[in-house]
Amino acid sequence: SSNSCLCLLFDGQKLHPTDFDCSICCNLFWSPITTPCGHVFCRECIIRSVDNTQAQCPICKSSLQHFFPMLLQSHVNKTEVIAKIMETYFPTEYNERQQLFEQENIRGASIPRTLIHDTNNSESVIFEIPIFVCVLAFPNCVCPLHVFEPRYRLMMRRTIETESRTFGMCTYDEQTGTFADYGTLLYIRGLVYTQDGRSIVDTIGQRRFRVIERGMRDGYNTAKVECIQDHPIDQHEFDDLFQLNRDTYNRARNWFDHLDPYRKTLIIRQLEAYPPCDDLTEGSTDGPSWAWIMLNLLPIEELLQYTALASQSFRIRIQMINDTIDFLLNQQQQPQQQQQPQQQQTTAVSNNQQ
Q1: Would you tell me how many other CB atoms lie within 10 Å of the CB of residue 170?
Q2: Which of 93, 183, 244, 298 is 20 to 30 A from 60 via CA?
Q3: CA-CA distances (angstroms) from residue 255 to 115, 240, 263, 301, 329?
Q4: Does residue 270 belong to any structural domain of this protein?
Q5: Does residue 115 sit within a domain?
Q6: Contact (Cβ atoms closer than 8 angstroms) between residue 230 and residue 140
Q7: Same domain membership, residue 132 and residue 97
Q8: Are 18 and 62 found together in one domain?
Q9: Confidence category of residue 169, pLDDT binned at 50, 70, 90
Q10: What is the CATH number of the domain that holds 36?
Q11: E-strand spans in the chain?
Q12: β partners of residue 39
């Protein structure tokens, strides 16, 4: 190639690895990027620099406002000539730099596929994931995120580059001063960058997990976790829960169908579509998906929602939905009962006047 031919024109004896050090990380360039002002940095270094300061060159302070969005969206190619020179004349240093990059940056969740896709897998496996401390997320529920903090920008970029595209979501526990013991794995379905480097992330919940050990990396939380699943259900209890699942779904759908149009529209906006009823199956890790969507949707206190997330009993969760539906139906009936005495009083007054 033309780049290979050009590299042969250089006198290797006059070149030194330090000539190709990034001025930000002081290591050999990795995926070198040349800015419009002519300065060269590692791709990840210049992105992290802008994350924590402004969209400008760290050396000459020239504006990178239009260059930065293209860089985030991978519309800027690396400077092949510089990369080829390093690979040709400094192969040992180049390989060492590659290993260093992989150790520092490719640190998303290395999750065995069987833990997510094999619903009959009961094996206890401990693995490490990055933790986003924000909201309470549930399996099978959509969780849109607006990411603007530099530490979480970095976390999202690292996660999207991994095969699993998965990270953990936990709430903050005020009593312990750290993130909660239970959370949900979120899969990144899509990610859009804004011009200033923020990102709009479309995620959906997968498996639940329990935190075994907490850690920290480059400003964001990490944890060693293991997935949890519901306890096995005895056959004599399974038949009862199977029917209870269907009956509860019908009650919830009936409540929804009798809502006023305004409230019904607000709920539909939170859902991609109203969930169909999926039956309870033997060996299910998290139970029917519609139940999680309703637990996320119904007006349930966050502490009770967290209890449902950590619970390994489907009966507890389905009973929580039933109790909430009872409360909501009673609220719907109270205004109707109050209107009847008022109508009777109006009729009595009208008769007296006559």
Answers
A1: 25
A2: 93
A3: 35, 23, 12, 19, 7
A4: yes
A5: no
A6: no
A7: no
A8: yes
A9: very high
A10: 3.30.40.10
A11: 32-34, 40-42, 126-134, 142-147, 166-173, 178-179, 182-193, 199-217, 220-227
A12: none
* Predicted confidence (pLDDT) per residue in 118-167, tens digit: 555 555 788 999 999 999 999 999 999 999 998 998 898 888 878 889 99
Summarize pLDDT for 296-306 with one digit per residue, the tens.
999 999 999 99
Number of domains, the chain: 3
Assess if residue 116 is contained within a domain.
no
Residue 6 pLDDT: 56
Domain edge (last residue) among 194, 227, 260:
227
How many residues belong to the chain? 354
Q: Which of 299, 292, 262, 255 minimizes the C-alpha distance to 275?
A: 292
111 inside domain: no
Nearest to 226 by CA among 311, 135, 313, 128: 128
Question: For 211, which DSSP code?
Answer: E
Report the b/e string of 279-301 with b at 16+ CB within 10 A.
ebeeebbbbbbbbbbbbbbbebe
**Same domain (yes/no): 213, 157:** yes
C-alpha distance from residue 326 to each of 73, 252, 321 (Å): 49, 10, 9
Instruction: Tell which wins on pLDDT, 323 or 72.
Output: 323
Residues 19 and 95 both lie in one domain? yes
CA-based torsion, 83, 84, 85, 87: positive or negative: positive
Give the three-class secondary structure for 348: helix
Same structural domain, 319 and 255: yes
The gap from C-alpha 329 to its chain's centroid, in whole angstroms, comes to 34
pTM over 0.90: no
Q: Phi and psi (nearest 5°) for 128? A: -105, 140
Q: Which range marks the domain in which residue 333 is found?
A: 235-344
Please report, as a single letter, which amino acid is at residue 172: Y
- Dihedral angle over CA of 102, 104, 109, 114, nearest 10: 30
- Interhelix angle 314-353/302-310, rounded to 10 degrees, is 150
Domain boundary among 211, 227, 243: 227
